[in-house]
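Reviewers of the previous submission asked for a worked example of the structure-prediction workflow described in the proposal, so we include one complete record here. The input consisted solely of the amino acid sequence. No template or homolog information was supplied to the procedure at any stage.
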Amino acid sequence: MDRDRLYMLIAFTLAIGITAYGVLLSPPFKSVRAAIGIPELEGARYNEKVGAADIINPSAGKAFLGRITLVYHSIFVVLIFGSYLVFTNRYLENSRYLSDIMLMGVLLTVFSGMLYAYLVKDFFLHGLFIAGLAFIFISGLLTFKEFKPKDLIAWNIYVSGILLLIGAFIGGWLGSSFMEHRDSFLNALIESRFTPSLAGENVYWRALTAHEHAMIAIALAFVFFTALSFTTLKEGRLTKYLIYLAIPSQLVTALASYSVWFIGGIAHLAITPAAMLLILSTLLLSFRVKEWNLIKAGLVVGNIVMWLAVAIPGALVAMSLRKPLFFNPEFRAEVWDWAELAYNIGHWHILLLTWGVTLLVIYMVYPRDFGKFGRIAGYFTLAGFLIASVGINFYMLGNPPGEYSPNPYNNIYLTTIVEPGLGLLSLGVAIGYLLYLRGFLKDYLTG
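From that input alone, the workflow returned the following structure tokens.
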């Protein structure tokens, strides 16, 4: 049995499983949930008393935030594991025990976290969740102790790995402080939804902000450069300068984000330009790949989406938070409540989706090339990803401020752009997964 491909199949399966469960929890599947016995849990739902989406129910808000934390950690560690397997296959020959440690950590984190979040509030399960994260951190620490970069691409991957470990350390500090300062932290998290300046005074909220922003930015850089390592770049000074530029851009982006923990909001003055330089360098590098193939297509589309669906809309929102520059009234006004919720949620989902789509593209060509059908799966996924990611911004930002509808699923942008895009993306992922599963089983049964 090809052990590495088995682990990649496990990562692929877990990612699809968690995502599918998240879809099952959405309002259109309420009857399905009831039929199979999944209990209704309060969360971000329409509140008739306030006439808007109420993310914090006074009686269940803190439990809701806890569930969100566990789910996002679960999907994050699965994507980390999937990326890690590609990286170790590419660069480390003797990494079997390291992959074993990380797999153990991922399984502990995902299953204990999801069970604790949705079924059994048993403190033992929460302890297993923490233990799983510890195993993942140990595996990463040992991996980057062994890794010896030999070229500029590898150095970028090395920098990403070290910065991810630093971010994980901050997350560990936050987690270890949580029980003692639970109410202070959760109250600050709730306040940040309505009055960010008040939450910024809480060191635990600042640590969370530093942790989550840096981790997703650097994880995307990690998977980008890992994918880039499978390509051939055009020679020349421009290519070399772009690869060099990415190293300090990563460093400043991550370290400025981490500085929010102990300095505060002023650190954002360094985050934004550094992040812009980072995604500019990765965009231009994606066009420096010599031959057009599925990986180049994934890198180009992923970077274009970063600009069209994340960076540019994010800049417009940021400039309009407290004065009506692009949105009238300002985006923080109560009349924009539902749109701000949609934007915050959509923003993070696009980032995670970019990561997952990049991994799928790699899996269609490495370690086994699935040929024509693999390319079909990849291009369907990329097309749906581009359409849905750009289209969701029309829903989040293109509607005039006004009363929130309790059933937004008949919204013109959702029905004509986002849902068809997600359907195409889902078809591509399904084809890719079936190809991967069939290929693995075929090799196992005949080998």
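The radius of gyration is 21 Å. We consider this example representative of the routine output the project will generate in years two and three.
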